[in-house]
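Changelog-adjacent note: as of this version, every example in the card shows the full chain rather than a window. The one below runs 98 residues end to end.
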Amino acid sequence: MTGLASDHDAAIDLVLEGYGRLESLDPDNELLQFYRRTPEGLELQDGREEAFFDRFQDADDRKSGHVKIAKVLGTYFVALRDAADRIEKYNRLNDDGR
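Full-length structure tokens:
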């Protein structure tokens, strides 16, 4: 497998993991609006492409006109992970009675 293909596949795996984790914690989270579950995994929602890339594509990459999809997916994964982490931290704090 080439470097680009393996980077893309790794980014997809991370997004699937992060999406599932966040979905289990908060199925209505706004980050989940960009993709939907399919039997094959996840699919970018029709009509959400521009908003997705506006939000997760690096400004320098946008200026260059090159889409680095693995990088965009990596940024999306970080947002999914951070949202799930915040929810879990909130839940732990509330469960501890603090």
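Structural remarks: The helical segments are 3-25, 49-56, 59-64, 69-95.
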